[in-house]
Design brief:
Helix 4 (165-181) runs parallel beside helix 5 (203-211). The protein is globular and about 45 Å long. The protein is of the alpha+beta class and 273 residues long. It has helices spanning 2-18, 55-65, 88-95, 165-181, 203-211, 250-255; strands spanning 36-42, 69-73, 98-99, 117-120, 124-133, 139-147, 153-160, 187-192, 231-235, 241-246, 261-265.
Length: 273
């Protein structure tokens, strides 16, 4: 525990030292032809660090990113009817992103599955599987199989892991088991994993069985002074992820307590398993 506290303290000091070097405006994100931009964003129920509920501001951040595929967490109310919080028709009109449909009979007003929403621009959805992850909290994942416009297939998993360490390990094991039971294909897993530990007891360690060495940890939480790398994008093919970055803009620092992360995905450079 002392080692984890020391790591967090070191990250906090580095974040404070570098706070004035964070970009004051958006920098262009390199996206060569044939590659896709993936993103993951915990929208914090569209409540910003200023305490204001503003779904329109959330949509503006997504528009800034301009992703081809994005996983959102906490996009529904947590209690009651768990109604969706975003204007999905407006989001589609402004960004071209369409939500992957889910079936939640008891919660017809929900956007997604246990707060997870997965949206994409191109390709044909072949299959979607809603996964209830183990643990005391109602956590889940969406597994989508997409046939892209270039004729290639891709599996995308959007997940939000729990706050309890033991639950996260169980949830990571469940995701690994699900991948093992399905046909092998290029797979991208992304979401808020609520995990900053990297040792043998970490849920991230369990995911390495499928995803190998993880991409660099990028602090994304809390948004105004990011210290912890809670949000992740990883892939099961070497070379599938070509670039990965935090989307750090003035608006993103305000719109949620998490900063979005984004990655350039290139199926043409992925090494077959």
């Amino acid at each position: 525990m002392k080692k984890n506290n020391a790591n967090i303290a070191s990250a906090l000091l580095a974040s404070i030292r570098n706070r004035h070097n964070r970009p004051a405006e958006l920098l262009p994100y390199h996206r060569p032809a044939g590659s896709l931009l993936f993103a993951s964003y915990n929208v914090h129920k569209c409540v910003g660090v200023d305490g204001r509920f503003d779904p329109g501001r959330t949509i503006e951040v997504i528009h800034e990113i301009d992703p081809d595929v994005i996983a959102l967490q906490e996009a529904d109310m947590r209690f009651g009817e768990r109604a969706g919080l975003l204007d999905l028709p407006r989001l589609r009109q402004e960004t071209g992103l369409a939500p992957i449909p889910v079936t939640v009979a008891a919660k017809p007003k929900s956007h997604g599955w246990r707060g997870n929403v997965l949206l994409f621009k191109q390709g044909v959805l072949r299959d979607v599987h809603q996964v209830a992850l183990p643990g005391l909290e109602p956590r889940g994942a969406l597994v989508a199989e997409i046939d892209l416009d270039n004729g290639k297939a891709l599996r995308v998993i959007a997940a939000h892991l729990g706050l309890m360490r033991r639950s996260r390990r169980q949830q990571a094991d469940t995701l690994v088991d699900i991948i093992g039971m399905r046909e092998d294909c290029p797979t991208v897993l992304m979401g808020d994993f609520n995990e900053w530990r990297l040792g043998n007891g970490s849920s991230l360690k369990r995911l390495e069985r499928v995803f190998g060495p993880l991409p660099p940890a990028l602090p994304s939480f809390p948004a105004q002074l990011p210290v912890l790398s809670l949000d992740r994008i990883m892939a099961n093919r070497e070379g599938l992820i070509q670039e990965i970055a935090v989307h750090d803009s003035p608006l993103a620092r305000l719109a949620s307590d998490h900063l979005p992360i984004k990655a350039r995905i290139d199926l043409g450079t992925a090494v077959e398993a």
